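Model it.
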Amino acid sequence: MLTSYAAHFNTPPGYLDFARFGPPSRDAVAATALAMEESARADHSTVDGLMRAEAAARDAAARLAGTDAQHTVLLPNASTGLFHAALGIREGVVLAPRTDFPANHYPWRRTADLGRATPRWLEPTPGSGVTPELVRAALTDDVVAVSVSAVDFRTGFRADLAALREAIGPDRLLIVDAIQAFGVAEMAWDAADVVVAGGQKWLRAGWATGFAALSDRALESLEPVLTGWTGVEDVGLFDGIEHPPAAHAQRWSITNLSPVTAAAFVAALDLVERHTVAAIEAAVATRITELTDVVERQGGHVLSPTDPARRAGILSFTMPDHDPSVVAKALHAEGVTATARTDSLRFSPHASTPPEASERVAAALSSLRN
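Modeled.
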């Protein structure tokens, strides 16, 4: 456990569901409350003062993504960014994994409905994800982009972004949903043209927080279909005529976001920066190793990659002869929160997760034999 980081949270020790939702820190909660209190005492300076949180959050997200504010825009969630990217491609084929989370499917289905980009579904092998070899085998001249998750939501498979960039070449777009990785896994974000992430999971900022980072290639080639009034040049000039989209990533802005959620996002990103992604990642890896050992000692079958270099903070498994719903009840009895699906279970610890979590899991799984 990263003790200095964990000290900022009140999360129960058995909470192992960060891939679904990351309970915010006391810092984020306090920032939210303060912003609301300030808004309740509004005067002539309140709105402008609260709005400064957006710039601070954008700057912090840009630093963590290895870019700058001109290439970064705040968004209310990852899905908004994926729709911006999808609708921005005028034509051509986009490769995307059929096994990906549905949020990565619907933008491409909608572009196909509109006669723009057409998805071609990749079929990763079970327990794996999108590999350079899989992509190379599917490349044809009409492929203009590849859309992947940095970390697979089912198994924790970690994509090799640098190798994917090399596989597709310099002229195709690499679009990355980073929601299961950003802030807890060091990855080659600069290999991607579009990086989108929501802040409600591993970043622990709460809902309605997120961002996108765009490369120069993305800014040049993606049509800003969804640009709103806050995404144009001379945004403060209300002259009744259409303004051109901003030259930088702000062109993906549709309207003003909540300064309250922006304040929470600033607090969450600040914690990551202060404690470093590398330290957080190492702490998560320690817990994954412990949990893997517990599951295997109790007779479970691990579905996630066994190679630490190919996995992130997710451990998926089954307990032979036990329905996942039954296993989930045993876990709940020991105060353990996990994701239970019809065919498997998923643990996703964070850097604040104590060793006690593994002890609780061991007790729960052991009870299945009684």
